[in-house]
Each structure stands twice: as C-alpha cells, then as structure tokens.
Amino acid sequence: MSRKTVTVFAATGSAGSACVEELLRQDVFNVQVLARAGGLQEKSSSGLLNSVDTKQQRWDDWRRRGVVVKQADVTDHASLIPALEGTDYLVSCVPLFATESQYPLIWAAKEAGVERFVPSEFGFIYEWEQFWPTDNAHKTAARQKAFIRRVIELAGLDFTIIPAGLWIEYFMPEPVAVMGDGNTKISWSSACDVGRIIPHVLAHPASRNAVCPVAATAYLTWNELLDARERILGRKVERVYLGHEDWLKAYDETPDGPMKAIVGIGVSATECPEGMPLWAHWNAMHLPAFKGTPLEQLFPEYIEPRVRELQAMLGAA
Ligand SMILES: NC(=O)c1ccc[n+]([C@@H]2O[C@H](COP(=O)([O-])OP(=O)(O)OC[C@H]3O[C@@H](n4cnc5c(N)ncnc54)[C@H](OP(=O)(O)O)[C@@H]3O)[C@@H](O)[C@H]2O)c1
C-alpha cells in the first residue's frame, strides 16, 4: 500500500510543530507543511507569538529532513487547491480564536481530493460542551469548533476529532486553581504530547469519522497530578479548590481577553453533568503502546519554563 501524505497547517505552533516532529520520527506518512503566505492576523493560543525568523528556521530544518513546505495564501481558494493536491490527511493546528481560518481550507481540500480533515480541537469534547447551560467565552469557542466539524461533514470529507482535555502548562501557575474537589480523573495533555499523539491516532483505523478523546500525557485527578508535581519539584505547590460558583464569580471579574476563555474552561468543567465527561482516555484502549512524556521529565523541562513564560506575559499585560 502506498504511503499516505499528511499536510500540517499552523505547523510552527505548539501542537503543530510537535506533530511534524513525530510524523518525521514515526516515518509512516509523507510529510508536508502548509505555510501561510500572509493574509491573516498573527495569533496564538497563549498570546506569545512566533517570530518570522523562528518560523523560517523551522521550515529550513524540516526541508532538510524531507518535509515538503508549500506556501499558499490560505485565504484564497485558487491558491489553496494546488497547495493541497496530493494530501490525503490535512491536520489543522490553528490557535484558539483562529478557528475561522479553517473555513477556506475545507472546500479547497474537497476540491483538491483530500480524504480526511483533522480540525484544530485538542481540548474538551466540544460536541457536548456547546450545549452546557452557562454561556462563556470558552463555550463560544466550543460552538465554533463543533460547527467546523459539521462543515467538514457537509463538504463530504472524512474527519477525525481529537479532544485532549486540559493542557497542563496552562493550569499550573500558582496558586493552582483546581476545578472542583480535584478527585475525578481527567485527561491531561501537554502541547508536546498533543502533537505527538496526532499521527498515532491518524494511523489507527478506528479514527476515521470518529471522535477520539485522548489523554496524551496522563489520565489523573488534579490531586494526583499536583502531588506528582510536588514530589518532582521537591516543594509545596500552592493550590485553591474552586467550585462552580467560585468559577462563575472569577469569570465575571476577569476582563475580556485570553484569560477570560481560560477561566471559562473552569466554568464549563465544574458544571459537567455526571455521565457526560468533557474528556476520555481513547488512547488507553486503542494506543496502549503510546506513552506520554514521563512527568519526571515533563515538569522540569517543559511545564515549569512555560509556566514562567505565561506568568511573565500576564504580568506584563
Ligand atoms: N485544552 C487546552 O488546554 C488547550 C490549550 C491550548 C490550546 N488548545 C487548542 O489547541 C489547538 C492548537 O493550539 P496551539 O496552542 O498549538 O496553537 P499555537 O501554538 O498558538 O499556534 C500558533 C501558530 O498558528 C499559526 N497561526 C498564527 N496565526 C494564525 C491565524 N490567524 N490563522 C491560522 N493560523 C495561524 C502560526 O503557524 P504558521 O505560521 O506555521 O501557520 C503560528 O505559529 C487550538 O485548537 C487550541 O484551542 C487547547
């Protein structure tokens, strides 16, 4: 059977770059990257932007390692079709609040003969969150992401939806605001593991036209994760336990901006009805050989530096 070709959009982002690296390491698919030739406001989930130089270095490095980098005006249908021809699976890793940038790609992908579209999800199971009772900025993002899936289906493309729970690095600034009593197991995925697991999910036959909610790093309670962090760092990690009413109050008090969406995650997580979890552990069943980065390595090398970056950015804002 000939190798499938995977094209990654928003490849220089956190999840995108980890996905490209794992595609290269895994060596199961041909790898392409869709590079944006202008046309869209530069965004990122965290608010920290990649410089043009950093991106250029990534593209040059990937080219040397066999990746085909295709430039296109991603707002322009006519420019997108030739850039997507030859792609079997199109993986989008666009940042939070850039969901709408995927619309032109969907129909162009259809016309270019792409088989499957993997939209940028990688959080809660948005199909459910979109119907939660309390409106908030994160639920708006959930509704948009759920709508994108419908548009993919309308275009007649296959899809794979990959919810990934909470990205550890976003929720570790201290005092850590625990969602609820911290005793329910949830999915934890750091960006490096989100990107890493995507090619494995894609390579699995059960991922075609399926929702595959992963715990790419770990499936643990808040308390288990924070206890592990304390043990690894050898110090106490300050934490506060916030119930639904506390999250609602914090949400009302948070000014508009990326932080409001993060607090909205707490609002949604703490009104999650029994039996309708916003996460699951698909990889335990379907990808038992896939291992998240060990926490002993992840916390000192990946999480703590990112927490410092995020705190510095929020402090400067
Ligand atoms: N559950 C959680 O806790 C959590 C946390 C964070 C993110 N997420 C989700 O994970 C997904 C990926 O997020 P990420 O943090 O990996 O992204 P990111 O790192 O913020 O992505 C940045 C990259 O996106 C591309 N980009 C910039 N502006 C764009 C625009 N206007 N339209 C399209 N692409 C643009 C650029 O790559 P190129 O120049 O190479 O195109 C840029 O380097 C999102 O769906 C986000 O909602 C979930």
Automatic annotation (TrEMBL):
Gene3D superfamilies per UniProt:
NAD(P)-binding Rossmann-like Domain (3.40.50.720), UDP-galactose 4-epimerase, domain 1 (3.90.25.10)
Recite the UniProt keywords alphabetically: NADP, Oxidoreductase
> Which domain of life does the protein's organism represent?
Bacteria
Q: Which residues form the signal peptide?
A: none
Which residue intervals define the domain NmrA-like in the entry? 3-250
Q: Which Pfam families match?
A: NmrA (PF05368)
User: What PROSITE patterns would the database entry show?
Assistant: PROKAR_LIPOPROTEIN
Which protein, by its recorded name, is this?
Answer: NAD(P)H-binding protein
